[in-house]
Amino acid sequence: RKVAGLFVCSRFHSFLIFMLFQLDFMQEDQCILVDFEDNVIGYDDKFECHIFSPERPRGKLHRAFSVFLFDQSGRLLLQQRAKEKITFPEVWTNTCCSHPLTGYTPTEQDEPHHVADGSVPGVKRAAIRKLEHELGIPASQFEIDDFRFVARLHYWAADAVTMVRVIPKCSQFDHLSAKTRGCLCQKMIDAFTLRMDALLKSQDIQMALNTPDFKPHTGPESPFGEHEIDYVLFVQKTVTLEPNASEVGGFEYVTPEQLLTLMMPESGRLWSPWFRILATRLLLPLWSRLPAILDGSERPDVTKIQRFDCAEEFLGGAGGAGRWLNEPGSTAFGDAWLGEVQIGGGKAPSTGPMKGLLARGPDGQWRFEANE
Q1: Can you say whether the dihedral through the CA atoms of 124, 125, 131, 136 is positive or negative?
Q2: Is the pLDDT of residue 299 over 70?
Q3: Exposure pattern of 77-87 as b/e (b: 16+ CB <10 Å)?
Q4: From 48, 134, 228, 247, the catalytic residue
Q5: Catalytic (active site) residue 97
Q6: Does the active-site annotation cover 183?
Q7: According to the model, what pLDDT value does residue 197 have?
Q8: Active-site option among 49, 96, 97, 183
Q9: What are phi and psi of 253, to 5 degrees?
Q10: Tens digit of pLDDT for each residue in 246-264?
Q11: Which positions ≥6 away from 128 have C-beta within 8 Å?
């Protein structure tokens, strides 16, 4: 039992450390805010950008990128997001999904002429940075010109379908040794909820943790989600992989036929909302023309922003957002925050931070605290 307790401590402590890393990234990384037409209008931290609220039903629109890495036989590398991710944990998705950020030299912010000529060097630099951070692919294995910019996707989705394990209080660890309890500092325990983790389902670990319950993390009133203009990049390379456990839960290469099978409900896999849109709307036709796209003989039109609402289960969120982008003639005024941007002449609204208003209820779900 003492050995089991130390094992629990080690894995549990590592899990919380990974969650600390994720929270640090969310609060320190500065995303690039854009208007309905992808013009840069300001910057905000990643945490604020991803909060859905009545004032900002779909958060703050910002730039993102999605890398699709193919091996030499044309198979696509898929990634499963780690359980520690703050938004959309444990879902399967394309090779790498993240954000170009401000504050880097050379810059990761692209200008309109970069989009017009398809070069987007800033987004490609960000992609190389995150491929190394998430999948451990050395930056030296890529050149900027290896990547092809194939599409811009405007989408949004509430994080309404993930689960968490509610962290028990320190008093529930009194039966463990002092050394074990020391790993479970109160600050960490109070700061986070834990995502569903198959490892923690084993009997010995459940006994050590006093069998805490699994509860919904978000649900229909989720205060977290995505609202992005996503730059889609293709690259074909033979790479070495050393995934970062705090970012990546799994990976595999697939053919188009294998992907279609895996995306059937019978597979039991949960897929990211942006990948579901890309896979069903854009990916397969582009994949079939991969050689021509990679050698530059075919250049997809990236000047047009393709806009899609998410699937039904990702609608809602704390702001009660409904369908918008799929509607004929959709404009910036279909979203409260983007409407304010438009009214303000292209400036990001000056609003206070929302993250201080979030609290976790006794049922384990994150909600906004009522203002007294």
Answers
A1: positive
A2: yes
A3: bbbbbbbbbbb
A4: 228
A5: yes
A6: no
A7: 37
A8: 97
A9: -90, 140
A10: 899 999 999 999 999 999 9
A11: 139, 142, 144
